[in-house]
Structure formats: C-alpha cells, structure tokens
Amino acid sequence: MDSKSPSLFSEASPVRLREIPYNYTSFSDREIVIRLLGEESWQILESLRGERITGRSARMLFEVLGDIWAVQRNPYLEDDLLDNRKRRRALLEALRHRLRQMEKRHPELDGENADRAKRVELLITAAHQAVDAFEAHFDRTHDMRRKALALLSKHTRKDNICFDGFARVSHVTDATDWRVEYPFVVLYPCTEQEVGHLVRDCIKLGLTIIPRGGGTGYTGGAVPLTPYSAVINTEKLVEIGRVEPETSLPGAAQAYATIYTGAGVVTRRAMETAEKAGLVFACDPTSADASCVGGNVAMNAGGKKAVLWGTALDNLASWRMVTPDGNWLDVERVNHNLGKIHEQAQVSFVLKRFDAKHRQLLSEEQLLIPGAAFRKGELGKDVTDKFLGGLPGIQKEGCDGIITSARWILHKMPPHTRTFCLEFFGQVREAVPAILEIRDYLAALPKHGPARVMLAGLEHLDERYVKAVGYAGKAKHHGRPKMVLIGDIVGDDDKQVALAASEVVRLCNARNAEGFIAVSPETRKTFWLDRARTAAIAKHTNAFKINEDVVIPLPRMGDYCDGIERINIELSLRNKLRLCDALSRLLAGDLPLRAYEDNVDKTELFGDRRGLALAAIASVRAR
Fold first, then answer.
1. Under a CB-based contact definition with an 8 Å cutoff, are residues 321 and 403 in contact?
2. Percent of the chain predicted with pLDDT > 90
3. Separation between Cα atoms, residue 243 and residue 276, nearest integer Å
4. CB within 8 A of 311, min separation 6: which ones?
5. What is d(CA 349, CA 399) in angstroms, rounded to the nearest whole number?
6. What CA–CA distance (Å, rounded) separates 276 from 242?
7. For position 9, what pLDDT does the model report?
8. Measured between alpha carbons, how far is 292 from 281 in angstroms, rounded to an integer?
9. The 3-state secondary structure of 367-383, one letter per residue
10. Rounded to 5 degrees, what are φ and ψ at 212?
C-alpha cells in the first residue's frame, strides 16, 4: 500500500462520512459545507469535530444545512416554496430558530475556551449568511423567471420556456449521470430561426447556454455547471428533407445523394429515411435510437460504419449553427471527396457569417486544412484534437455554438453482406494479432470492380462491456469471452463475400478463438443487438464506453486493455488494504458492545476471537 495515500479513517474516533440529513445525493458533507458556508467553515468544523461535548449544536447546524440542501437539490420543493410564501416563511423561521438555539448554547458551553468560542461564532455567522442567501435566492429566482419569460417569449411560445421541476430534472445530466447544478430554464425552440434570438436574449440575461439534443453523450457536454444556465433543447427541430439522389455538391467530381436534417432529428429516423431510398446514412452511433443528428455533428460521432465511410465529419456536406454572439454561421465543404476526409490532400470549407436574422452577409472566408491533419495514424477519430484546424462546430461538443441543421451525403451499400462475430477467450494481447491480420487481409482485397470486398462495419466489445450487457456467448463450453469483435463484410459478388467471411473466421480460429457468420438479415441483426445496449454500461459499471476500434490504434489495443486492467487491479488492491488497516485498528481497540451486553465481561465474551480475526486479516494482507 502506498504510504502517502490518505487514510480513509482517522486514528482517533471513527468519522461519520455523512452527518447532514436529507442528503441523498452524491455530494459529501465536505462538498455541501463548502458550497453553503465556504472552505474556511469546513476547516473550522473539522477542527471542532474532536472537541464536541454533546454534539447537539453540530446536529442543529447540520439540520439547517440539510434543509437548505434538500430544497436546492429538489426543483419540485423549490417550486412549491416559490409558489407558497407562507410555507417558505415557516421554513426560514425554523432554520433561524435552530441557529438561535445554537447561539443560546454557545456562551453556556464555551465560556472557558475563548478560541473554541470564536470558531463556533464564525460558524454561526456563516450559517446565518447561508440562510439569508437561501431566502434571497427565492426573490431573485422569482424576478429572474419573470424577466426571462417576458424576454424569451418574444421569440418562442411560452410553453417552450420551462422553469418547472420536470424539465429541470430531466436536463440536469446526460448519459454520464454526472449531476452538478440544475439548469435555471430549459428552452425548446420550435424552429431553427428561433434559436439565434434565444441565444442573444440568454446572453442579455447573463445565462450560461448549454446546447442539448437527445442527451446521450458520455462526455458531460450537456451537464449544467452553474445554477444560472439555460439548456437549449433542439429536439423539436425535426425537419427532415427528402432524399435528393443527384445533388450537385460544390467542386465535387460527381453528383451524389444527400439528405437535409434538422438538429433534432433522431439518428435512427435519418437512417430509416435513407434506407427507404436504398441508401445508407453512415453516421450510426450506438445510441442511434435516441441521439440526435445535431449532437452527432457536435461530437463528430462515428459508429460501426466509420471503418468504411468515416465519422460525421467525413459525411457532412454542410451545416448551419448559431454562434455564441447569436449570429449565424453556414459551413459548406468544397471539393468533397465523398469518402474519408483524411484521404484528401487538401480539404476546403467555405464559412459564411450572417446577422441574427440570417439576411445580411457579414463575412465570408475559405478554410483550407490538410486532410492528414484531421487524424493521426491508425485512428478513425482523433478525440485529442478538438480544434480540427479551426473548423467550427465539429467535435466542439457545443462549446462554440449550437448546430441547428445539416446536409449529409448518403452512400450506396453493396448488395451482399455477411456479418461475423469473433469471440476471444485468452488475453487481449493475444487477440490483437488476429485482429490486425483480419484488418490487413480485408484491406488487401480489391475495393473496385465486380469482385470488390470491403469491411463495412466493425465494433469491439471488451470484457467489461461483455459482462455489463449480459452477452450470451455463441461458443459452447467456453464461458464468457474476454473480447468480442463484430463486423460486416460487403461486396457485389456473394461468393467473394462468403469466401472473405470464411477466411476471417479461419484467421480467428488460428488464434484459439471462435468465429461465427450470419447470412440472413434476421441473424445479422441478432449479432448486432448487444452493441445497442449502452445503458448497461452506466447501470452496471458507471463508466464511459470507449469505441476502441475507432479511438485507439488497433496495434496498441492490447496494451490499452492491459493498462486499464492493471489500473483496476491496483485500485482494488489499495481499497482492500485500506479496509484491512481499518478492520485491524477496530479489532485492536476497545470493541463496542450492545446495550444489553454492558454487564458482560469482554474478555470472556471475545475469548480468542479477536486474535483469530486479526490473524485472518494479516493473512489476507500478506496474500
């Protein structure tokens, strides 16, 4: 165990980690005290912890903080108190009554200790200030809501401006389940034109603006970090155009199919619209059933088809966004190569800036970026580069504006498909060579002409993901696999596709793994079902899902998985050693008895059990 790591337990009396009542949040007592009273007050509380006599004053202080915290973290309670002045006064009077009781006890118990008396007085003063701030918050919130409603309702319907508890609770977090602050207001613009005006007025109100679509992101980009924030939800921007099979793209070598979508269009709907026209909407993240295309642009989302057609960036013809000053920015790609962007020597974009009404052109510029600058080698998506050569909107997670609409290119999928599922049961480092061999084999096959064969989809499920989603292994008598690789092989010749799929399975078998091939659409869909169960990751592991096949270079995937596993093992061992230390201190000290055992001789009661328990802990530690 690292001697420098902080101990979870004090050498003195055990510390109660949660003394503030009504706290059912993930915030610790320390975080709550610092939020309400300040850092200095927490230090004072810590210094007084070992000097408590009856602890009654401390309990009253924590009750005051608990009442305030319960209201602050429950928008329904806050709304109730905002609407009921009488109930609000009763709560405030109860809080101040407890503080007055503390003030009465203060001179009685601290007359002999001037230093302690001074520290307690500082705490009481800070608590009074917290109650005053709590009271002032209601008046300020009432005035701010009235002002915001009057200003924002000029541009959208009043029922699109939501201060209610339901709207605020449902927008406090995204798929990360990370909760910091509740938004002040949630806005649901009905049209693209409303967004710019709402942004400008939110700026006038001093609100922090947070764009949000389906709320499926795993990076916390839609999580409010300040209490006075406005979440602009684009889910009502659901306009979707018809598929245009012969769109003339500026500078492109040929006409190509495209589709227009509003930012609130659910990804699955765009995919289905393209599919009805016999085409493919290539941006298909795991969250396709809930994510919106605006978020796909802002996150540069990929998906299983990224291996063939790239991420959102590769498949965008143009997009429109509202900038942080409330003006408009239209971005259009010129000389689109209709494929992966990094394969183009020089990538060109035209940026046109318009006023708030999108009528007057304010400026126009051309952005030239070397294609190779978009991705590092072996990466399908470089998450380390948010700047992307200064290209607005893409991969910025809503930090430089709000995506309101986009036009996407659509692709034609070859007619024949085989889906393979490879299950690896050894260490990941042993499976990586097989993956590289499969990739290199498929890359060497012809990509043009009637005999072309391509890898059209690829997804890697690591051991923790496999466990979280309850993956049912296809190989019998092997148990749960350590890793699963699912992919689609497509081509114009069914025989060539079948041969390629068989060779992939053979390469897999040579590495002591099992491979399976699905031919019918129903079976292929079954193979891909486990990929969509991303909710299980948050439910079972509270961790973020990483698409290793897109984000991490394939040759280093074994090193990555081994490194992550090593971190997990080290942290687990550290926690177990801390637990051993705490149990040893407890058993070596004066063990407490139940009330009805007060008259029992401890030596006779415990016998040699104490020694046996300490020996057992020592053996566990040594192991």
1. yes
2. 64
3. 9
4. 283, 300, 301, 302, 303, 380, 381, 550
5. 20
6. 11
7. 34
8. 13
9. EEEEHHHHCCCCCCCCC
10. -150, 140
Cα–Cα nearest to 235, from 201, 258, 205, 212: 212
Are 101 and 157 spatial neighbours (Cβ–Cβ below 8 Å)? no
Residue 13: CA atoms inside 13 Å, Cβ hemisphere, count? Answer: 7
Identify the pLDDT of residue 465.
81
Q: Which of 488, 473, 489 lies closest to 424 in space, CA to CA?
A: 473
CA atoms of 180 and 223, how far apart (whole Å): 7
Q: Print burial letters for 511-522: b (CB count within 10 Å at least 16), e (below 16).
A: bebbbbbbeeee
Distance CA 320, CA 352 (A): 10
Within 233-360, where are the H helices?
A: 267-276, 293-299, 306-309, 312-315
CB-based burial label for 486 (10 Å; 0-12, 13-18, 19+): buried
Task: Specify which of 501-515, 524-538, 589-603 reaches the highest per-range mean pLDDT.
Answer: 501-515
List Cβ neighbours of 424 (8 Å cut-off, separation of 6 or more). Answer: 430, 431, 434, 481, 482, 483, 484, 485, 508, 511, 513
Q: What is the pLDDT of residue 544?
A: 40
Query: Which residues have a Cβ under 8 Å from the Cβ of 137 and sit 6 or more positions away?
Result: none
DSSP string, 564-579: HHHHHHHHHHHHHHHH
How many residues are listed for the chain in this entry?
A: 623
Q: Do 305 and 280 contact (CB within 8 A), yes or no? A: yes
Q: Is 48 exposed, middle or buried (CB count within 10 Å of its CB: 0-12, 13-18, 19+)? A: middle
Identify the band that residue 382 occupies on the pLDDT scale cut at 50, 70 and 90. Answer: low
The pLDDT value given to residue 452 = 95
Q: Which residue has the higher pLDDT, 299 or 53?
A: 299
Q: Whole-angstrom distance between the N-terminal and C-terminal Cα of the chain? A: 13
DSSP-assigned beta bridge partners for residue 244:
258
Q: Tell me how far apart the alpha carbons of residues 429 and 417 are, in angstroms, rounded to a whole number.
A: 29
Distance CA 418, CA 405 (A): 34
Contacts of 622 (CB under 8 A, 6+ apart): none
Structural domains of the chain ordered from first start = 29-150 (no CATH), 154-233 (3.30.43.10), 240-411 (3.30.465.10), 416-535 (3.30.70.2190), 555-622 (no CATH)
